[in-house]
Amino acid sequence: MTPLVCARCAAPALLAARYPHRWHNSSGEQVEGLRESVLCESCDTNDPAAAPLLALLTSDDPPPLTGLANAVDAWLTTIRHRTPDPTTLETEEARWQSGDL
Questions:
Q1: Chain centroid to CA 7: how far?
Q2: 72 within 8 A of 43, measured Cβ to Cβ
Q3: Which residues, listed in sequence order, are joined to residue 69 by a DSSP beta bridge?
Q4: Residue 68 to residue 53: CA distance in whole angstroms
Q5: Ordered DSSP codes for the chain
Q6: Cα separation, 67 vs 4, whole angstroms
Q7: What is the mean pLDDT of residues 10-20?
Q8: Confidence label for 1 from pLDDT (cuts 50, 70 and 90)
Q9: Backbone phi, psi, residue 22, to 5°
Q10: 44-87 tens-digit pLDDT
């Protein structure tokens, strides 16, 4: 199994979530697919949506399942509506093209 890695910094990631996503292509047709979001202890430290989930996942104590489920749900509710930063997207595309991603 390939280790989970953050595409933004290449550090080990804590969590990845895939969820349904749809958009309209240049012809105006709706395209259905999946989107993936990765939680990274380094990159998401200052993200208020990630703070409760990071606290649970980085604690020395195992998180209660209901608390973990609620934190994941709150994180996904926020991030699934975010749009990509064009500069970050270009950087990731360049990394993908070069085989680094």
A1: 9
A2: no
A3: none
A4: 7
A5: -PPPB-TTT-SBPSEEEEEEEEEE-TTS-EEEEEEEEEE-TTTTTT-TTTHHHHHHHHSSSPPPHHHHHHHHHHHHHHHTT----HHHHHHHHHHHHHT--
A6: 23
A7: 91
A8: low
A9: -135, 150
A10: 999 999 999 999 998 888 778 888 899 999 999 998 888 778 88
Cα distances from 82 to residues 2, 48, 68, 100, 101, in angstroms, run: 27, 13, 22, 24, 22
Q: What pTM was estimated for this model as a whole?
A: 0.71
Token pair recorded at residue 16: 């990845």
What CA–CA distances, in Å, run from 76 to 12, 34, 94?
19, 13, 26
Q: Which residue shows structure tokens 């749900």? A: 73
Q: Which residue, 23, 19, 42, is CA-closest to 32?
A: 23
In the structure encoding, which two tokens stand for residue 83, read together? 């749009």
